[in-house]
Amino acid sequence: MCPFKKDALVQQKGTYSVQSRHLRPVCAGSVPDLRPQVTLSNSSSHLRYTCVWTCGRSKSMPSGSDKVVCVTGAGGFIASWIVKILLEQGYTVRGTVRNPDDPKNSHLRELEGAKERLTLCRADLLNYQSLRQAIYGCDGVFHAASPMTNDPEQMVEPAVIGTKNVITAAAEAKVRRVVFTSSIGAVYMDPNRTPEKVVDETCWSDLDFCKNTKNWYCYGKMVAEKTAWDEAREKGVDLVVINPVLVLGPLLQPTVNASVRHILKYLTGSAKSYANSVQGYVHVKDVALAHILVYETPSASGRYICAESVLHRGDVVEILAKFFPEYPIPTKCSDETRPREKPYKFTNQKLKDLGLEFTPVKQCLYETVKSMQEKGHLPLPTQNDEPSYSNDHS
Ligand SMILES: NC(=O)c1ccc[n+]([C@@H]2O[C@H](COP(=O)([O-])OP(=O)(O)OC[C@H]3O[C@@H](n4cnc5c(N)ncnc54)[C@H](OP(=O)(O)O)[C@@H]3O)[C@@H](O)[C@H]2O)c1
Fold first, then answer.
1. Ligand 1 mean position, distance from CA 149 (Å)
2. Domains of the chain (ranges plus CATH)?
3. What's the whole-model pTM score?
4. Locate the NAD-dependent epimerase/dehydratase domain: which residues (predicted)?
5. pLDDT band with cut points at 50, 70 and 90 for residue 5
6. For atom 5 of ligand 1, which residue has the closest CA?
């Protein structure tokens, strides 16, 4: 089919861009962004054309160009980083927040690209219509919103019903993929796991154990993730899940979230000792990158453990004390009667295989403290010698 309208005044030799709907490439039906370029030349009796298909996406064009995605709970610690990186990669983002006028969300409007490509939509996890409006017309959804509390009434229903609502709205909008932020809490809370067992994506927490120990946060996240998988299967939604351990790193939002508070208490003097327990740690930027990586990788599937290392609390306070000796960091364990708890084994190979390089936990701890100082959540040390992050703290 000739790409030019019959009456078009295309008599001159040269190269023309034409609309792709006028032509179909004979090959590469699955290659996105192919655009035809038509070159006209004279043959003896009439004008000829040859067509070259080029990929419209040049090397410098960011991966998210022309794509609209929704991020739920956009003002939160992790979601703010997801929004930031999505905007940097050229995506158009609809961020859901419960109150767009709340100053705690104002940092989002300052992000690079926000003026042109970020819309804040008012939505509550328990209000289906609000989520439906935010998600309609999107290519993908990053579902990060969730209560972060151990109060069963505030935790379980919004986490579970909210997730069901998001998957239903995503199915209705026929989005390409949903990335759900679950938690290691849905993976490793199992009293029957042996110390040799490597925690991987096949592991599920023991729901009765979560209930009996009143760990309502892990209970809520576990039921929410199960609900996400069930709903996605039933409604034909492509779902990928990220299971982060405790997330630390620089804050974009003006308030301190629950996981960063975990470190703050060791610096303010409010924690006089540290617990005899272990914890996984990961940098917030790596968590955000992991979400976008699994969204953009067509072959990504299932769950992805997002963890850099597992440390005893004693290791954490030791690292903090080396970087920031001016703060009243505890030196005593609250339970020295039991043997020191050993870190569990885990694998983060699935994310590494996708190309994610994890930030070392020491750098992560350092950046967390510096960020809390910069945001005014932690008084600056009084001594003159500023600590700095370098590899000799190993
Ligand atoms: N931080 C961690 O260590 C960690 C580790 C593993 C998994 N996760 C998961 O990662 C996600 C984000 O965590 P985060 O640390 O970034 O927490 P965060 O800073 O507290 O952010 C949570 C967000 O969820 C929103 N939200 C809560 N209830 C809502 C509701 N009923 N309707 C709409 N929005 C609601 C909050 O909005 P408001 O501002 O309006 O309250 C907030 O923006 C959560 O799903 C969490 O379970 C976090």
1. 9
2. 68-248+284-307+342-358 (3.40.50.720)
3. 0.86
4. 69-301
5. very low
6. 246
Helix axes 361-374, 258-268, angle to 10 degrees: 80
Judge whether 287 and 306 are in contact, CB under 8 Å: yes
The model's pLDDT over 251-281, given as tens digits with 9 standing for 90+, comes to 999 999 999 999 999 999 999 999 999 999 9
Catalytic residue list: 221
Return the pLDDT at 102: 97
Phi and psi at residue 287, to the nearest 5°: -65, -45
Q: Pocket around ligand 1: residues whose beta carbon is below 6 Å from it? A: 73, 75-79, 97-98, 124-126, 144-148, 158, 162, 181, 183, 221, 244, 246-247, 257, 259
Ligand 1 mean position to 148 CA, how many Å? 6
Residue 18 burial (CB count, 10 A): 18
Q: What pLDDT does 38 receive?
A: 53
Residue 78 Cα: closest atom of ligand 1: 16
CB 216 within 8 A of CB 168: no
Atom of ligand 1 nearest to the CA of 105: 39
Lowest-confidence region among 15-19, 163-167, 173-177, 210-214: 15-19
Is the pLDDT at 187 greater than 90? The verdict is yes
What b/e readout covers 286-320, taking b as 16+ CB neighbours within 10 angstroms?
A: bbbbbbbbbbbeeebeebbbbbbbbbbbbbbbebb
* Ligand 1 atom showing the smallest separation from residue 79 Cα: 16
Take residue 385 and report the two structure tokens written for it: 């010698």
